[in-house]
Amino acid sequence: MSVIDTRVVNIDQLKLEHFAKGDKFESNSLRIGPLIGAKDLGYSYDVVPPGKSSCPFHSHRGEEEMFFIVKGAGMLRYGSEMRKIRAGDVICCPVGGPETAHQIINDSDSELAYLSISTMMPAEVCEYPDSNKVGAFGGGLRHMTRVVHHLDYWTDEV
User: Fold this and answer.
1) What pLDDT tens digit does each residue of the chain (158 aa) get?
2) How far is the C-alpha of 73 from the C-alpha of 85, rounded, in Å?
3) CATH assignment of 4-121?
4) Per-domain residue ranges for the chain?
5) Which of 90, 128, 149, 158 is the most exposed place for a label (fewest CB within 10 A)?
6) What is the Rg, in whole angstroms, of the alpha carbon atoms belonging to the chain?
7) Has this prediction a pTM greater than 0.70?
8) DSSP state string for the chain
9) What b-and-e string marks burial along 5-30, b requiring 16 or more CB atoms within 10 Å of the CB?
10) Sign of the C-alpha dihedral, residues 10, 13, 17, 21?
């Protein structure tokens, strides 16, 4: 296989992995970045069935995300707002707090498919406003906690 061929993949040829959690979350998806040698950007492809979302409502403090709706229609939840989205839409989700929290929901009666592209930072903090969680990720550490479990910087240090 030539070098150029290792940098190209067609979404019709992807072997998607099924994910489901509870009644709200389900998708067939795959992280494409590793397949094509991506280093600084993350690429994913998600196909979400009617009535589902692929992930919880969340914001990023380190990574910016962009979504491109490949097929179907749905709803974008962004901060305190909602709007319809459809094939061809490009969505920007910059870093920030609850005001940039986002979630794509398939509220239609057919599949919704989209590409996600994100900056790949060595460390990331995500906030989940609906469940009052915060996640810290980086260097092999993946830690999720509730916002109410806040500790002072100096707790147990003296």
Assistant:
1) 899 999 999 999 999 999 999 999 999 999 999 999 999 999 999 999 999 999 999 999 999 999 999 999 999 999 999 999 999 999 999 999 999 999 999 999 999 999 999 999 999 999 999 999 999 999 999 999 999 988 888 899 98
2) 6
3) 2.60.120.10
4) 4-121
5) 158
6) 17
7) yes
8) --TGGGG---GGG---EEEEETTTEEEEEEE-HHHHT-SSEEEEEEEE-TT-BSS-SBEESS--EEEEEEE-EEEEEETTEEEEEETT-EEEE-S-SGGG-EEEE--SSS-EEEEEEEE--SEEEEEETTTTEEEEEETTEEEEEEGGG---TTTTT-
9) eeeeeeeeeeeeeeeeeeeeebbbbb
10) positive
